[in-house]
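Hi, here's the filled form for the chain we discussed.

Project: internal
Contact: R.S.
Residues: 320
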Amino acid sequence: MSDPTNAAAPNPLIPIPRGPVPLAPPAAARCQIEITIDGRKLSVPEGTTLLEAARSIAIDTPTLCYLENLTPVNVCRVCVVELEGSRTLVPACSRKAEPGMSIQTDSERVRLSRKLVLEFLASSVDTSTAPALRSYMERYDAHPERFGASAATVAQPVKIDNELYVRDYGKCILCYKCVEACGEDAQNTFAIAVAGRGFAAGISTEFEIPLPESACVYCGNCIGVCPTGALMFKSEFDMRQAGSWDESRQTQTDTICPYCGVGCTLTVHQQDNQIVRVTSPLDQQVTDGHLCIKGRFGWQFVQITAPAGPPPASTPKDAA
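And the returned structure, exactly as it came back:
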């Protein structure tokens, strides 16, 4: 007599049909509101920021502390716009659109404010590896040299205490991006924060202990969001010091990280047939541009080559 417990057991020779692929539920519909930007009337979904609204009609608003995968913190103040009825300029990156708003994104007041902010920043930090900031300076005719050679700066020695990345806080504009990426927006490590005031303010570990002794897990997400090169791959830093770094000769290839099953997308930057750094696209739903230590730094094995030498001796099996 057959065992009734095995009566309904599936036959391993018959493949089980695959179930439906799970889909994310559609986003809830949002009410449309009417606003005016630079004299142009447009309709945007409720909750849209002024920055998003301006970009939707191809208005390029400058940003330094804003990034799509981070929470806006409103500290750089280069995205400010003029809102009718507001006493002060408002940050476009975080101010939500409201019905009937009238915004000027390129008024004389806005341009003067952006110019002064850029001049103050560039007079106190090294902008040599901040192409976006330098392009904004040209756009707004900013001349930080007018403050003179004696202008206060945050110049300081480069911190090199590990083989993965370096910290050059003489280039730091305190945009808070690295703090946000280390915190709730990505890593939830909270190894760094802004400490001090005025020119003494800077990015610091807890109790200013050395980075290798801190809570840092070396995910490198702080590097991925830094807009000025204050945080930089050690490989890039060494090549820049040697004068061999040349982005015009670099290629970028997207691939999938080989270390685990999460499926993070990597953008591999190569120069002279060598990997020089790894980033991740911001528009990837898996990690929104963030990576772990293996994905961002664990690519050296690709460049390991076998030592030169005679070929291995053949075996009887090879001969057969």
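Let me know if anything looks off before we file it.
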